[in-house]
Amino acid sequence: MRIVSSADPQLWIPVTDSFGWKGRRHRKAAIRMLMMQAGGAALPRGTKVGAWALSQLAPAMMKRANGRVLVWTWKADPELVVAMATTQELTNDVRRARAMMPIEYDDTETFTSTLGAGEKLVMSLPPDPKSPPFATYTWDTGSHLITVTAVGGDRERFGTLIPALDDLARSIRIADDLTGGESPDVLRIDPA
């Protein structure tokens, strides 16, 4: 399953298809923030060539994911927030991992979009002061799990971005391989 988005270009810079010098600053900020969220590790210190290679490798891997991973940074300040949308097959292992999440992840609220009813979790002040603030939007389509995760770089300003993150999450759509007019006997029904 592939996903697409119509993110507001006045607010968000796409990192997914960004190569070369264009978007380099936004790419580096996105990679650094996502790595901190994933394991608390910062970018490895070393040569400028190594940092540049990593900033080129990440978008190539996202592009190779072919619509299963989309990443954006905040246009005005790439260090403020990075958002990543992913889709993955909903296997028994994924269901089990979701069921075993810590209790603080039970504070979700219902969030609806064109994908249907999903869940929204905002952790503006995570229990661990070293952890960055984040927001997660999740939809279970039955066969796949679609997730939008936003990681903030500033605990004080992260809450001001929630309306923009809501709009970004609502812009996520499932990309159909079938284009309009290919088959007249296919009926498409909006999930909402």
Summarize the structure.
The chain is α+β, with helices and mostly antiparallel strands.
Number of helices: 4
- Helix amount, in percent? 25-40%
Strand content: 25-35%
Looking at how many chains there are and whether they match, the oligomeric state comes to single chain
Number of strands: 9
Helix-strand pattern: EEHHEEHEEEEHE
Q: Kindly state the mean pLDDT as a whole number?
A: 74
Structural class: alpha+beta
Please state the CA-atom Rg, rounded to the nearest Å.
17 Å
User: Span between N and C termini?
Assistant: 19 Å
Taking the sheet with the most strands, its summary is: 7 strands, antiparallel
Strand order of the largest sheet: 2-3-4-8-7-6-5
Outline: globular
How would you sum up this structure, described in words?
Helix 1 packs across helix 2. The strands form 2 sheets. Strands 2-3-4-8-7-6-5 form a 7-stranded antiparallel β-sheet, sandwiched between helices. Strands 1-9 form a two-stranded antiparallel sheet. The protein is α+β, with helices and mostly antiparallel strands and 192 residues long. The protein has 4 helices and 9 strands, in the order E-E-H-H-E-E-H-E-E-E-E-H-E. It starts with a strand and ends in a 17-residue tail after the last strand. It is globular and about 50 Å long. The longest helix has 17 residues. A hairpin with a 6-residue loop joins strand 3 and strand 4. The protein is 26% helix and 29% strand.
